Amino acid sequence: MAKRIRRKFLFQSESPTDTVPLSPSSSSKIPFRSTKVRKISSNQEPAKPQFSAPDGYNPTRTFPNLADPVKSSSSLDEISTAINHLRRSDPLLISLLDSCESPHFKSNPPFLALTKSILYQQLATKAAESIYNRFASLCGGEASVLPDTVLGLSPQQLRVVGVSGRKASYLHDLATKFIEGNLSNSLILEMDDETLLGELTAVKGIGVWSVHMFMIFTLHRPDVLPVGDLGVRKGVQRLYGLKDLPKPAEMEKLCEKWKPYRSIGAWYMWRLMEEKGVVKKGSDLPDNMENRG
């Protein structure tokens, strides 16, 4: 019953493939997984790549707007600094900061997290988890959810594990952009927020809301304000006693004082909605980026 009720809080963002939940859940902290590298003996030939680079591949492509360095909110010191800043800059947050545990964030490698983001779209959590687990098995395990592996799966193979034809095209587009060099795990980690938003929304099936969730929960970017997220908007409305839900421009103005830690402020807006009983505390809501990232 709880899951059926919270589905009512979903609404479509400006991207037709981007479903916005009321609130991501509250847990999480896993560092990026290290990739196991198999040593190759001098007498053993390295495995040949399964796919050749598609037309248009440019290994020398550069991005002029790389951040140096990109800040992260994953460390305890950074979280503590953010909370102290919010406490000083916005007294209305003090009681909420005192009543909630500190934020914790988890993550997966960017390609894997983005793949999950696509697969979880517009699905209840259990259904999405089931499809994702079958998809990962089809790839040969979660560690093998890689661009060339995904691109090698036909729409028919994906359909067997529950992936729709539309989502299969999204997955293939994402994998193609990685193989062509437009995106990579390392590039994503280095891009500034504006550049990253432009590159990721160029992928079919990934909209602004998904990128904001990815920035917050996978990349741990500290200053992202998801102005299209219903849970954050409702939290801001309740915090400041507004009659109506704030629009994006009003959100930017009201939350200006939270800079440069608006991601943490947004996290507390989700917690505020839990405390007020709008959603069940610790609940796993559909299309939850934390589960995916």
Task: Explain what this protein looks like in three dimensions.
InterPro entries: Alkylbase_DNA_Glycosylase/TA, DNA_glycosylase, HhH-GPD_domain. One of its GO terms (biological process) is base-excision repair, AP site formation. Residues 119-274 form the HhH-GPD domain. The chain has 293 residues and is mainly alpha-helical. The protein contains 15 helices and 2 strands. The protein has a single domain (12-25, 67-279, 287-292), classed as Hypothetical protein, domain 2 (Endonuclease III, domain 1). A hairpin with a 6-residue loop joins β1 and β2 (19-20). The chain is elongated, with a radius of gyration of 20 Å. α4 (110-120) packs antiparallel against α8 and α10 packs across α11. It starts with a helix and ends with a helix.
Give the uncertain stretches in residue-range form. Answer: 1-17, 25-69, 279-293
**Count of strand segments:** 2
Number of domains: 1
What portion of residues is helical? 40-55%
Q: CATH topology, what is it called?
A: Endonuclease III, domain 1
The tally of helices reads 15
Secondary-structure element order, N to C: HEEHHHHHHHHHHHHHH
Major beta sheet summary = 2 strands, antiparallel
Backbone CA Rg = 20 Å
Estimate the mean pLDDT confidence: 79
Question: CA-to-CA gap between the ends?
Answer: 26 Å
Q: Hey, roughly how much beta strand do the residues contain? A: under 5%
**Main sheet: strand order:** 1-2
CATH class value: Mainly Alpha
Write the CATH architecture name: Orthogonal Bundle
Helix vs. strand class: mainly alpha
CATH homologous superfamily assignment? Hypothetical protein, domain 2
Question: What is the 3D shape?
Answer: elongated
Region (Disordered): 1-58
Organism: Cucumis melo
Keywords: DNA damage, DNA repair
InterPro entries: Alkylbase_DNA_Glycosylase/TA, DNA_glycosylase, HhH-GPD_domain
